[in-house]
Sequence to fold (157 residues):
Amino acid sequence: MQGSEFDQAGFFAAIAASGARALMIGRRAMIALGLSVMTQDYDFWVHGDDIDAFNAAVEPFGLFPNRDAAAARAFGRYVLENDERVDVLVSRSVPTVDGVRVAFDDLWTRKQEVSLGYQLSLCLPSIDDLILTKLFGGRPKDAEDIRQLLALKGTRP
Fold:
C-alpha cells in the first residue's frame, strides 16, 4: 500500500487563508527556521475559538479530527490524521516542566511570520516562545532542540 502525496505548500496556504489563529510549533517550526531536524508529524497550537476554521481548512487534505471542537477544548488537544498526522494543541495555556504557564494569546502577540517562498508564509512562535513550548514535555530530544534554537538565536541580529 502506498500513501498519498501530501501537498505541504497547499496545506500551509489553506491554514494561512483560513483566518484561524494557528501557530506551527514542534520540529516542523524548527525546519521552517532553517534548522536540520527530522520529524514525521506536524504540530500546531490553535486558538480554541478557531478549531472549526482550522479543521475546515485542512479537510480537503483528507485530515479529520479525532474529537469534535467541544471535546477538543475540554481535553486541550486533538489529532488530525490520515497518511499525515497533525497534533493540535488548543489549551489556553500550558505549563512547562518547571511550572511556567505559557499562554497562547501571549505567544500570538509575539508571533513571527516566516516566508516559505511563493508568497506563502506561516505563523510561528518567536524563538524564545518556541523554546518555552519545548519545555512542555522535558524529553531528551527537546533539550537538543533547545540547544539548536539557542544557537540559532545567537546568530540572529
Q: What stands out?
A: The radius of gyration is 15 Å.
